[in-house]
Amino acid sequence: MRILAISWASHTEVNRQIFRVLSAAYNLEVTIIIPRSINIDGVPVGCDHYADEDIDIIALDVTSGNPRFNRYIGINSVIAKIKPDIIFHEDDPISLQAIQYGLLCRLYKAKLICRTNQNTDISYAYEIKRLGFLKGALYAGMKLSMFSISRRLISHIFSISEDGSRRHSRLMTVSVRRFVKTLVSTILFLDISDARLKERGFTCYLKHFQNSSSTVGHYCWMNPSEIQMIIIIKKLMGI
């Protein structure tokens, strides 16, 4: 089974942890596509080192502009080569990228999973109130038009909040799962005891699992949101 994760967050090394677990625990072929660099306050910042990772990581250049319209340069050829069973687009389903990956999933008989931070209304009324009549109507029309296409191509959406889950459920015909937003996708608390981690709902997921930058004894601690994501991905892959 092959998973292709397209992960903006994995520009930073610690956010790759969930994909390491999927690879190590279930013997899945995991490849991550990350941005070669991102702009932070107008300054380009290169991605964290990845040459010695246990999973395949491919860094691609990304076009500039609004995240709903930008794209990874050369990603179509990467997808054609890998032919994944699941594409995990760790970003919003209301985007040209989601449509692009959804169409490629149809071509290669794969499934597309997206993650959304959107927790406000997706409607003309909300955008007009927020942006004014003309700009709000154009922006809402653009979002709803893209969503009318992408929702037919997506197998699953992870939402960061109950509000987001409810709003997407009203617009979607596919399932939506909510998970609690954390500061980073995965974080290892080196100065907190095992008991405190358990109190906070973290699970000791793998014994003798090494992180390239840090360890907690020889254990990998994951928070409930990431465990839930792994469970859903496993179900979608039939494992």
What does this structure look like?
The chain folds into two domains: 2-186 and 226-237, 3-Layer(aba) Sandwich (Rossmann fold); 188-222, no CATH class. The protein is 36% helix and 22% strand. It is built from eight helices and eleven strands. The chain has helices at 17-26, 75-82, 96-108, 124-131, 133-150, 162-171, 194-199, 224-237, and strands spanning 2-6, 29-35, 37-40, 43-46, 56-60, 86-89, 111-116, 156-159, 175-178, 203-207, 219-222. It has a seven-stranded parallel sheet with strand order 5-2-1-6-7-8-9, sandwiched between helices. It has a two-stranded antiparallel sheet with strand order 3-4. It has a two-stranded antiparallel sheet with strand order 10-11.
Please describe the topology of this protein:
Layout: E1 2-6, H1 17-26, E2 29-35, E3 37-40, E4 43-46, E5 56-60, H2 75-82, E6 86-89, H3 96-108, E7 111-116, H4 124-131, H5 133-150, E8 156-159, H6 162-171, E9 175-178, H7 194-199, E10 203-207, E11 219-222, H8 224-237
Show unreliable segments: 180-193, 204-221
Q: Could you name the CATH class of the largest domain?
A: Alpha Beta
The secondary-structure element order is: EHEEEEHEHEHHEHEHEEH
Lateral arrangement of strands in the main beta sheet: 5-2-1-6-7-8-9
Radius of gyration: 18 Å
